[in-house]
Design brief:
Number of helices: 3
Helix content: over 70%
Strand content: under 5%
Structural class: mainly alpha
Length: about 100
């Protein structure tokens, strides 16, 4: 393949992937874009494998973002459960001194 064809292919693959993801309403790209950017740079520096780095970075970034989201949900559930468990006892109406 010529160098021009290689460059065009490398430019079209990420664009086509993003267009496919944008067209899917149920796909969440949480963490993917940041991971893909970091992975592309790392892949390029490691030996001109920017596309492979972007794919791996997207997968890792999505996994990390998903874990963080689950931890946030768990913390919110724990905080919501604390006030219910620590609710004050019903006042009996008796006067004590």
């Amino acid at each position: 393949m010529s160098q021009r064809m290689t460059l065009m292919t490398m430019a079209l693959v990420p664009v086509a992937s993003l267009l496919l993801l944008a067209g899917s309403p149920q796909v969440e790209a949480r963490g993917c874009l940041k991971g893909a950017a970091v992975g592309a740079v790392a892949g390029h520096v490691a030996g001109h494998h920017a596309v492979l780095g972007a794919v791996a970075g997207c997968a890792v970034g999505h996994h990390v973002a998903k874990k963080q989201h689950q931890q946030q949900l768990q913390q919110q559930q724990q905080q919501a459960a604390k006030p219910a468990a620590q609710a004050p006892a019903a006042h009996s109406g008796a006067i004590t001194s």
